[in-house]
Design a protein that fits this description.
The complex is a heterodimer of chains A (258) and B (437). Chain A is an all-alpha fold and 258 residues long. Chain A contains eleven helices and no strands. The longest helix of chain A is centred in the first third of the chain and has 33 residues. The chains are: A mainly alpha (258), B alpha/beta (437). The complex binds zinc ion.
């Protein structure tokens, strides 16, 4: 077969895509995963940004919520996919089974991240359509693309949180922890309600959460952020992601019994 | 078709590519804002918006705002306003938009309102001019129409003694000599439609002259009569001693700061407590002290927009120096620190000042006296309107007249950019000037 002469990267990509298909379809069949992660952000946006704000003098609120509900929209699939899914596979032994197959670990991680990104893209698509054609939000083309890009990139730091939770928590506990992080972090980070409307204490606490920094980075695209410099958010976000990855690595080492 | 071709193995890359293409096309068809024209070309009138501009609203700076003007008035100021389709838009990026400036101390004659407007001063508070001129200019401030003149509010005829300060300029002045005449004097000013009462207390002692002036009883009686007619009473004084005495008499504001002494912190606090405002007119105070801003302004600011009259008065000097710049500037610093409301006024066209142009110098001097950029600008906009009880201008706020000054650059970072004018609107109409070409 001619295909055998192809470089190794080609086969890695193919395997990764196949694993993604598997992950995506199995996630889709899990209503507890698919419904809240796909429908929550879209319905919240429809209700708070389109219906509530309809005919208002300013588009600041629907534009703000477009950015933050977008971040919220990828937070769900990222941390649920890694956090709950991973804990589940580990506890049921499915993860051990996968370790015995020749599939590279990279493909396994890629599939999870890509699945979260696909769900994220569907949420972003729905939110952007609602914003542009129902709420009346108008952005420069570069702003639409930057928003979409940052929101999709948020899958990576959020997956790192999910990975850390999945590596440490047992399946039942993981569901609780993930929900707590999902709701608590979103609220305090200003993803639901504009952060300058929250008490100052919560604004100070928010700095420890990646969702806050991602929210601010997206809001910066549309000039509605709190005005801190980009590097401030990138440095803290990078540090927080590194902590999550180290925590995840320690968790898996423990699980592997090494 | 073979089994391998139908398998996900082969289809997946195509599905992924199609998904990415669909996502990108969706981003490509989302609505974009209508184009906004950068300032520099012809500016829109009456109905338009300045978008994505840093505003100074008369009190503080706010970034990324849209200002929507409708029928010559401000319809809305906010972030990402829902603007109607087809509304002309000025791209305000890199610019600062503020209310047209208010010069709270001028003396009007001839074409000077024209000179003011070209430099972004859309309203002047005149502190003594012929009542007939004030009456002639009055209708312009109540209608929204294309104009090449700033609006005028005026004290009209000042309260001064026969032969006193104010009578030497050739304008006929009705004077008074005793407290008993005060009610009739104020009633006559009201009849002439003076917007407030200005009292002159000047014996010439600070510049070595001996000038007849009102006595304290008469001054107190005029203040009382003004308040009885519901008019503000403001006063010209030249010494700290007279300033403090005026405070005791219940004056509403001083139209100069003195130049003889630095006020003590305790006395500054008394001014704050009484709620008395001060229009320091540092431009003229420094000129009197022999440190005129005139040459600096003539060098820095738009020579092509400076009229012969502005050039002439800016270059003039006082015959006899009076006071020190330190006494005036340090007094303003203490008054401001104590919380006294400071207003920007130039006393144009006195020697060393020019209509309009000197407001940009006065802003720099107020900054030198310790006011923040926002406080200095408030002194020339919101605070001035508030102090004189004028509610239709001085702030970027729904319902107020669209008197606007658009400045190139970040004014908050550098107040001296105030004269980098990119546009002036009066009553929603763009003003013609050399900087527009
Ligand atoms: Zn004067």
């Amino acid at each position: 077969m001619a295909a055998n002469t192809r470089p190794a990267l080609f086969w890695h990509l193919r395997i990764a895509l196949l694993e993604t298909r598997f992950q995506f379809l199995s996630s889709l069949r899990l209503p507890a995963f698919a419904i809240p992660t796909l429908l929550f952000p879209v319905f919240f946006y429809l209700f708070f940004a389109v219906v509530f704000q309809s005919g208002g003098p300013s588009l600041a609120a629907p534009t703000y919520m477009l950015a933050t509900y977008g971040v919220f929209g990828v937070l769900g699939p990222s941390i649920f996919g890694f956090g709950v899914g991973l804990a589940q596979e580990r506890d049921t032994g499915a993860l051990l089974l996968k370790r015995t197959t020749p599939m590279p670990a990279g493909a396994f991680l890629f599939a999870r991240v890509a699945t979260a990104a696909i769900f994220g893209a569907v949420v972003i698509g729905a939110l952007f359509l609602l914003a542009g054609f129902a709420a009346g939000v108008e952005l420069h083309r570069s702003q639409w693309f930057s928003l979409a890009g940052i929101i999709l990139a948020a899958v990576l730091p959020f997956s790192a949180i999910g990975l850390a939770i999945g590596a440490w928590a047992k399946q039942q506990a993981a569901v609780a922890v993930v929900n707590l992080v999902f709701i608590g972090m979103s609220l305090i980070s200003g993803l639901w309600v504009p952060i300058d409307m929250l008490p100052n204490v919560m604004q100070d606490i928010a700095i420890v959460f990646p969702a806050f920094h991602l929210g601010q980075l997206t809001l910066k695209v549309i000039d509605l952020d709190l005005g801190r410099p980009i590097w401030f958010h990138l440095v803290l976000l990078g540090g927080q992601t590194a902590v999550c990855l180290v925590a995840a690595a320690l968790g898996f080492r423990r699980f592997s019994g090494r | 078709m073979t089994a391998a071709e139908r398998s996900p193995w082969r289809r997946d890359p195509w599905i992924a590519a199609a998904g990415i293409a669909a996502f990108v096309s969706l981003l490509m068809m989302l609505p974009v804002p209508e184009p906004a024209d950068p300032p520099g070309g012809p500016l829109p009138e009456t109905n338009f918006a300045v978008v994505n501009v840093t505003v100074f609203d008369g009190e503080e700076f706010r970034a990324h705002r849209d200002v929507w003007v409708e029928d010559g008035r401000i319809r809305a100021v906010g972030q990402r306003l829902a603007l109607p389709d087809g509304l002309p838009r000025v791209d305000g990026r890199g610019h600062t938009l503020l209310p047209g400036l208010i010069d709270a101390h001028t003396h009007t004659y001839g074409m000077v309102l024209n000179d003011s407007l070209r430099f972004g001063v859309t309203t002047v508070f005149d502190q003594f001019t012929a009542p007939s001129l004030a009456a002639q200019k009055r209708p312009a401030r109540e209608r929204l129409a294309r104009t090449d003149e700033a609006d005028l509010f005026s004290a009209g005829n000042v309260a001064t003694a026969p032969g006193g300060h104010g009578t030497q300029f050739g304008v006929p002045v009705e004077t008074l000599t005793s407290p008993e005449e005060a009610p009739a004097f104020v009633a006559a000013r009201r009849e002439e439609s003076s917007d407030w009462i200005k009292i002159i207390w000047e014996d010439g002692s600070t510049f070595g002259a001996d000038i007849p002036t009102l006595d304290r009883e008469t001054i107190a009686a005029v203040i009382e009569a003004a308040h009885a007619e519901d008019l503000l009473a403001v006063m010209h004084v030249s010494s700290l001693e007279h300033g403090l005495a005026a405070l005791e008499m219940g004056v509403d504001g001083l139209v100069h700061v003195w130049g003889d002494e630095v006020i003590s912190e305790a006395d500054a606090a008394r001014f704050a407590e009484a709620g008395v405002f001060v229009i320091p007119t540092l431009s003229v105070r420094l000129a009197a002290a022999g440190e005129s801003m005139g040459p600096e302004l003539l060098r820095d600011l738009h020579p092509e927009d400076v009229s012969d009259m502005q050039r002439q008065t800016l270059a003039q000097t006082f015959p006899r120096p009076a006071g020190t710049s330190e006494a005036s500037i340090e007094s303003v610093r203490r008054l401001h620190a104590a919380g006294v409301r400071i207003l920007a006024g130039t006393d144009a066209p006195n020697p060393g000042t020019g209509f309009g142009i000197s407001m940009h110098g006065e802003l720099r001097l107020l900054e030198r006296a310790g006011l923040s950029v926002a406080d200095a600008l408030a002194a020339a906009t919101g605070a001035a309107a508030d102090a004189f009880g004028i509610e239709d201008r001085g702030r970027l706020e729904r319902g107020r007249i669209a008197d606007l000054l658009l400045v190139a650059g970040d004014l908050e970072a550098d107040l001296s950019r105030s004269a980098e004018i990119a546009g002036v609107w009066k009553d929603g109409f763009p003003v013609e000037a050399a900087w527009a070409r």
